[in-house]
Design brief:
The protein is α/β, with parallel strands linked by helices. It folds into 2 domains: 165 residues, Bordetella uptake gene, domain 1 (D-Maltodextrin-Binding Protein, domain 2, 3-Layer(aba) Sandwich); 121 residues, Periplasmic binding protein-like II (D-Maltodextrin-Binding Protein, domain 2), CATH 3.40.190. The chain contains 10 helices and 12 strands.
Length: 321
């Protein structure tokens, strides 16, 4: 099976702008409160950019859920072109939906890609009293015809869904339609379904599970990382359990098309400054994110490559023709 992620750990060093910090800045999180996009707007943007004086005043966070991020994408493309005071949280899930043509009528060239500043490794989690003790227990239950419901913060066929299908495929499942997946607007809502006993398992990212893990409400069955994530305690990787699957959800930002080159360079510089700051390094580690940095032109090329990789993989798994 083709690998979904080929990370390019490189930095395109744009000259930092000497322009005054932007003011009246808005960050759109394309989902409700509690998910990864919301975290991306509220922590590296609203918190760290403000603390580093990269913007004037506070950054206003707008939660705009709908269509797996498609509502926000369409809003930015059709109504906010040229808005130099707007940035939008993005992730591997954004690239996945573009690769699968979920954002009908729009593509990756409709916005300006600024940069990524961390990687959020995927996790499969269950409620604390779940009968499933390992990722193979859960996947075997699905393969044997038992009901297993996966929920995530993405639209059907998106990145959270793909992670489960890749795992199931690695575990020998031939008919991936046996996986019963239900999508929600964001990871927070999906997690409530698991904790409330209405769903068997959660598929999402490390940053989305920490509060409930710390509260003892869930258990992690597998982490999709090359080695254990310190913040997740003794949670085992999928690889340790015989499933060689690594899946990281990069987190970053895009801006509307039509902005000036000067504004684009300034925003890329802002994202770069956050990524290189000790303040973000501490918060990144606290929230279980791994280092990952790509900016400017390099990041735009990276996005286009990822969109194509997802398209190819989705066709391989039978999601697209």
């Amino acid at each position: 099976m083709k690998k979904l992620l080929t990370f390019v750990f490189s930095i395109f060093l744009l000259p930092l702008s000497s322009a005054s910090p932007m003011s009246n800045v808005e960050c759109i999180a394309p989902a409700g409160v509690g998910g990864g996009w919301d975290f991306t707007c509220r922590v590296p943007a609203a918190q760290v950019m403000s603390d580093l004086k990269l913007v004037e005043g506070n950054i206003e966070v707008t939660n705009m859920s709908g269509a797996g991020g498609g509502k926000a994408y369409a809003h930015v493309v059709t109504k906010r072109k040229g808005d130099e005071n707007l940035i939008v949280a993005a992730s591997m899930a954004t690239a996945a939906r573009l690769g699968q043509n979920v954002y009908a009528g729009f593509d990756a060239n409709d916005v300006r890609w600024l940069g990524a500043l961390g990687a959020d490794y995927g996790v499969i989690a269950v409620a604390k009293d779940s009968p499933y003790q390992s990722i193979k227990d859960l996947l075997n239950a699905v393969n044997n015809g038992e009901k297993a419901l996966f929920v995530g913060g993405s639209s059907a066929g998106g990145w959270d869904h793909l992670k489960v299908l890749i795992l199931a495929n690695k575990n020998g499942m031939k008919n991936l339609r046996k996986v019963n997946y239900v999508a929600f607007d964001n990871g927070g809502k999906a997690m409530l379904e698991v904790i409330g006993g209405r769903a068997d398992a959660f598929t999402g990212d490390t940053s989305e599970v920490l509060s409930n893990l710390d509260a003892g409400k869930i258990r992690i069955l597998a982490v999709l990382s090359p080695e254990r994530v310190k913040r997740l305690g003794d949670a085992k990787t999928a690889k340790e359990q015989g499933l060689d699957v690594v899946g990281a959800n990069w987190r970053g930002f895009y801006a509307p098309s039509g902005i000036s080159n000067a504004a684009y360079s300034q925003w890329v510089g802002n994202v770069m400054s956050v990524a290189q700051s000790p303040e973000w390094a501490e918060l990144r580690e606290k929230n279980g994110l791994a280092p990952f940095a790509s900016f400017g032109a390099d990041f735009e090329n990276f996005i286009r490559e990822q969109v194509q990789v997802v398209r190819d993989l989705s066709q391989e798994l039978g999601f697209m023709k």
